[in-house]
Amino acid sequence: MTGELVLVVDDEPVIVRALSAALQARGHRVAVAINGAEAMAEVATRHPDVVILDLGLPDIDGMEVCRQLREWTETPIIVLTAQGAESSKVEALDAGANDYVTKPFSTPELLARVRVALRSRSNPSDQETNVLITVGHLAIDLAHRRVTLKGREVDLTPKEFAFLLALARHPGRVITHQMLLREVWGPEYSDEVQYLRVYASHLRKKLDDDPARPYLVTDPGVGFRLVDPDDD
Amino acid sequence: MDAAGNHKRLQALARAAVGVLLLGAAAAVMLPFRGEMARALPAVVFVVPIAVAGLVAGRAVAIATAAAAAGTFNALFIPPYATFGIHGPEDIVAFVVFGFVAIVVGTLVSREGERRQVAEQRASDLETLNAELQAVEQERQRLAEEANKAAILERLDEQRSALLRSVSHDLRTPLGGISAIVSDLLSGTAYDEATRAELLGLVASETERLDRLVANLLSMSRVEAGALKPDCKPFAIDEVVTATVRRLGRLFAGRRVQLELPSQLPLVRGDYVQLEQVITNLLENAARHAPPSSTVRVGGRDVGSHVEVWIDDEGSGVRPFERERIFQPFRVGDGSSSTGMGLAICKAIVDAHGGTISVDNAPYGGARFSFRVPKA
Questions:
Q1: Based on the domain organization, do B207 and B336 belong to the same domain?
Q2: Which range among A53-57, B97-101, B260-264 shows the weakest confidence by mean pLDDT?
Q3: Least CA distance to B206: which residue of chain A?
């Protein structure tokens, strides 16, 4: 996966330098924008494969940049948010961001999210064309509505299956509470966040999830994501 | 109601009696000398009880007293005595004149008394109104003070939360850089030696930035607690300027710093550590506003009783209406990402030294920040 162009949008020179160095060390090409106007111009002219977008920009609100980019491009966007701003994470995801990372972040974690974003882009498991989705040792057979973990079948109720599938269609990517509720229960249930807690705990039990290395990850106040625990 | 009415009636009766009693007393005093006195004298004396009756008991009593006085005058002082008969035209004239005067005096005096009573009533009404007005005014003032206090508290609250927001932003920004670099280096990314050194250099400069921020926070809390007492000793401020410029060299990457310090700059009397912080904050401020490849000039000069240190940048400068405000702590909503703490601390420290600090236009464009502290 070398040579992909990553656009880093941040007005903090140290963050920009750190990310550029880390991305280049992994063979990516890097473009930099220090404000929202530059970011939109760079996306339009250079067509990056993924955008890392800080929400706190000096000129335009990063959320607005996200919204405007989404009007015409499907390029994956990972937003960088300040700590303790759950509502802005949800808002960014609703505005079309694919993922978010909270500042101060760990670079390896951000790079893992970049990999997820690039993978989902090059391998459109988003589409229903895939009849088998695998995340680590977890395999979901869409044709037979069957789930196996390390080859052993996991018995799930239809709602639990729908819940798992909603996450598994975008592995590694956070799915917000509202998205999950709409997809699994229908639009009229979009405020029933406690359903999700109940079903998440059922799923964890059935998948025998290790809390230290889980498949099902909770993003408090935002949503859930399905990850491969063996992915670094 | 009945008791009160009775009481009033008794009072009126007592007042009416005053005229009669005075009349009796005057008559009794003059009676032994009635043969030797001029005929007009008793008449004149009798005016007194009438006037008194008018004053204390009103018009009706005054007229009654006047009638009684006329009777007494006629019976006791106009011959033939002990009768109401009058002989001789002179006595008739005297009696008629007396009667007229008595009634006029009684009327006038009683009217005056009534007027006085009305005036007194009015005065007491006014006093009551005034007292009520004062109470209302006091209440209004109390409420205004409370509203004012609430507004001040709200403002303080706003300032505090603005401070907290900007402090946590300022603390997090360098932490974000440090965290990004250190987590990357820890994960074992293969960097060449130069990149590795560059990244570690960034960690070092971000750490210094955090340290300056914490130093400013500490000073600010000392300023707020009124505990910013400079420990004044003579020292060479040009040496502090030179050392601080060298220490902050990293801040001026891509810009040039030019020192314009005269060799014979006099010693100042001040707190070395505190004035070093002033110079640090002013240099950091200049670094924040100096455009790429511009020059920051730092100099000093002897200005009589004080030594001045100045720092010029070639940035966009400070607009005149902001020149006072810029030294106030926690300016809210000026759009800058900095806490606005640095310059406020500079002012607090320089003030505590009995010096002055100001911002002006620099000779080559941009802003000139300068401060003066006393010579040793």
A1: no
A2: B97-101
A3: A14
List, as own/partner pairs, every contact residues B293-296 make where C-beta atoms lie below 8 angstroms and the sequence separation is at least 24, other chains included. B293/B254, B293/B255, B293/B256, B294/B255, B294/B256, B294/B366, B295/B255, B295/B256, B295/B257, B295/B258, B295/B364, B296/B252, B296/B255, B296/B256, B296/B257, B296/B258
Residue B80: asked if its preceding bond is cis (omega within 30°), the reply is yes
CB-based contact (8 Å) between B190 and chain A? yes
In CATH, what class is A5-122?
A: alpha beta
Split at pLDDT 50, 70, 90, the class of B114 is confident
B205 and B268 assigned to the same domain: no
Instruction: For chain A, give every domain's residue range.
Output: 5-122, 132-226
Are B31 and B112 in the same domain?
Answer: yes
Q: Is residue B144 part of a domain?
A: no
Query: A153-191 as b/e, with b when 16 or more CB fall inside 10 Å?
Result: ebebeeebbbbbbbbbbbbbbbbbbbbbbebbbeeeeee
Q: Tell me, which fold does domain A132-226 have in CATH?
A: Arc Repressor Mutant, subunit A (1.10.10)
* Beta carbons within 10 angstroms of residue B284's beta carbon: 18
Task: Select, from the ranges A123-132, B30-39, B108-117, B242-251, the one with the highest average predicted confidence (pLDDT).
Answer: B242-251
Q: Chain B: nearest CA to A60, how far in angstroms?
A: 13
Is the CB of B180 less than 8 angstroms away from the CB of A21? no
Amino acid making up residue A5: L
| pTM of the full structure | 0.62
State the average pLDDT over residues B83-104: 76
Segments forming the whole domain that contains residue B316: 233-374
Q: What average pLDDT score do residues B118-128 get?
A: 91
Which of chain B's residues have a Cβ under 8 Å away from the Cβ of A16?
A: none
Q: Does residue B106 sit in the same domain as residue B204?
A: no
CA–CA gap between residue A9 and residue A18 (Å, rounded): 13
**Ranges assigned E (strand) in chain B:** 233-235, 256-260, 268-270, 295-303, 306-312, 356-361, 367-374
Last residue within a domain, chosen from B114, B133, B152: B133
Judgement on whether residues B21 and B68 belong to the same structural domain of the protein: yes
Q: Answer whether residue A172 shows pLDDT above 70.
A: yes
Q: In CATH, what number is assigned to the domain containing residue B192?
A: 1.10.287.130
**Per-residue pLDDT at A124:** 53
Q: Is the pLDDT of residue A123 over 60?
A: no
B270 plus B182 within the same structural domain: no
pLDDT of residue B332: 45
Interface A-B, measured as beta-carbon pairs within 8 A, has a size of 65
- Taking only the tens place, the pLDDT of each residue in B340-366 is 688 888 998 999 999 999 999 988 889
Beta carbons of A17 and B174 less than 8 Å apart: no
Amino acid B143 reads: L
Residues of B whose CB is below 8 A from A20? none
In a domain, B55, yes or no: yes
pLDDT at B335: 43
Q: Is residue B139 part of a domain?
A: no
A170 pLDDT above the threshold of 90:
no
Residue B87 lies in a domain: yes
